[in-house]
Amino acid sequence: MNAGEKRAAFEPPAALALPVSPPADMPRPIATTAGAGLVVLRVLAGVVWLISLALEWGDLVSEATDDAGVQLSNDQLDAALAVVLVFGGAVLLVELVLAVLIYLGLNWPRILVMVFATFSISGSFAAWWAGDQDITLETTLLTLSLDILVMLALSSRAARAYARRPRRRA
Asked: Whole-model pTM?
């Protein structure tokens, strides 16, 4: 494609699946760096979300249990919070490792993060559509926007070519 030519707005999936042949010493594109950075920002947003959840845990659980007519002891509340924080921290740690692997140019973490972002975006949309959750700054707007930006950065041609480039043997 020449510099003056426009790219088609739609490309058939078969064309996108064709092998790419960038040079092995291809420099890291800004899309890959930005995508990895956005994943790190997504992790930081997750940390802030976990902290705010921990601070409001008692009120959130008591509101939910009062509606259900269930009473939990403080030990049960603390144990449930610990499980949620450990699980959330583990997910964020995995996401951070994936960000590093994306930065290093591996393809499978790039695909995995895009799949997770797709599920996150779809889940936010489904919750909004069902009327269960509004998309506001206090709820999901920040993480939703980061997920969309991650998808845009990591699905670019440059990021794809960099992740699928041939590797030099050591």
From this structure: 0.82
